[in-house]
Amino acid sequence: MTKYLLLAATAIALASPALAQQGGGRMQQTPEERAAAFVKADANKDGKLDKAELKMTLPEQFRDQVDDERLGQMMARRDADKDGFISKAEYDAPMQRPAQ
Fold first, then answer.
1. Residue 86 DSSP one-character state
2. Could you tell me how far CA 64 lies from the centroid of its own chain?
């Protein structure tokens, strides 16, 4: 039993740096990938994203899981100037933490 615990602990210790480098296991986009996602999602080519366009920047496998309330929260966290749209600069900026 101790042998297996030691083996598991070693595997975790070896995997930790790789996970940390990858953002804790989350997919990290390069700046070029983020720029391409913004351009692709900006359907009307006005240089900003509305709610529907913002949803298109999400990975396809998650889009159906994000309801309007959650999408509104995401929008509020990115929309720094509160104009109801996400500019390229707001999209590229780190997402703001929700107010507590």
1. E
2. 15
CATH architecture designation of domain 29-92: Orthogonal Bundle (1.10)
pTM above 0.70, yes or no: no
Separation of alpha carbons 16 and 33, rounded Å: 25
85: CB partners within 8 A, 6+ apart: 48, 49, 50, 79
First to last CA, the chain: 45
Sign of the torsion angle spanned by Cα atoms 44, 47, 51, 53:
positive
With a cut of 70, say whether residue 1 has pLDDT above it.
no
Residue environment code for 54-68, b if the CB has 16+ CB neighbours within 10 A, otherwise e: bbebbeeeeeeeeee
